[in-house]
Predict the structure.
Amino acid sequence: MSAVSHARESAGQPVPLRHDWSRAEIEALFALPLTELLFRAAGVHRQHFDPAEVQISTLLSVKTGGCPEDCSYCPQAQRYHTGVEATKLMETEAVLEKARQAKAAGASRFCMGAAWRSPKDRDIPKVAAMIREVKALGMETCATLGMLSGPQARALKEAGLDYYNHNIDTDPEFYDAIIHTREIQDRFDTLEHVRDAGLKTCCGGIVGMGETGRQRAGLLRTLANLPVHPDSVPINRLVQVEGTPLHGTEAIDPFDFVRTIAVARILMPCSMVRLSAGRQDMSDELQAMCFLAGANSIFYGEQLLTTGNPDTERDMALFQRLGLKPMQVHVDAEGHDHPGTVHADIIELPQHPQSCAA
Ligand code: SAM
Ligand code: DTB
Ligand code: SF4
């Protein structure tokens, strides 16, 4: 894993970021008393973000089910009997209508997901048309389509894609227990193609899949030690779907989930940490603890891809009760987004002290 470091602007100063975390250091963070861990994570959060702001993305499954992969958590894998019906790729106009609704409901980013191992080259112009049109609405665009080649990543960037979501999903040491139809190196390769194309990366994982604490630390270590911290780090709590091999797995202790968010915030101080799948079954109090631990992004809207998400009224009521507000994103005439310091350009530094100094 590379120990090359990068920095972003925060309050006009470059912020050194670490990429050389050891598993033991991360396990030591997890082992802190929860009160101390939350205090540290909340401090880091405040150095880089307004803790009252939460970025809001809406998801749409533009191609559902029938996937040839065997990810043991996923209701869209064809081989499991989950009741998810396979559909064709949606028409651009239908996608656009959903994006307009998401924008009207307050979402700043629209994420289009497809149940593909990887897109075929002939799919790319169709997805590119969706991206172009959604971007023209003044929203940030995100896509998650499976593994990408370099030319595919460049074609999506050309169409106006801002973010590509591609999760490493779990600790490399646990990967073989969860997915057998691809290797974690395939995921790293796609992430490299995505970065090389100039796209922002959205990369995280799932917890509550029966992993150990050591493996949870390994997931976050792998994310933080990527050559560039992902701009967005989704932390999903497994949504257990009947018919998938992981249905019936012992649930993660809610406090361990909060610890995962807090450690992600400390390791990747300038990234958006997204409280992702699994919110529907979380109490308002647990979500509040996650925001306190440094989560500053959510999926908003009643549906994730194939499973449910809290309804928008519940989320708006929660925001009001907690005094949180949706993060504003300004897209200029050239289509560049300006959400304050959040997506400031990454500056590579040859050497720097290994601590966050903003
Ligand atoms: N097929 C593409 C891929 O796998 O990259 C894109 C869509 S896939 C559904 C996107 C991500 O959703 C997965 O990487 C996984 O992290 C998450 N996911 C899928 N099923 C989930 C579940 N049951 N609970 C939590 N997260 C899940
Ligand atoms: C991510 O990390 N979580 C989202 C998004 N990226 C694409 C997907 C969650 C899917 C949950 C199961 C489903 O709804 O099918
Ligand atoms: Fe397919 Fe993605 Fe689901 Fe894996 S996570 S089965 S690749 S849709």
Observations:
- Residues 38-139+155-326 form a domain with the TIM Barrel fold (CATH 3.20.20.70).
- The chain has one domain: 38-139+155-326.
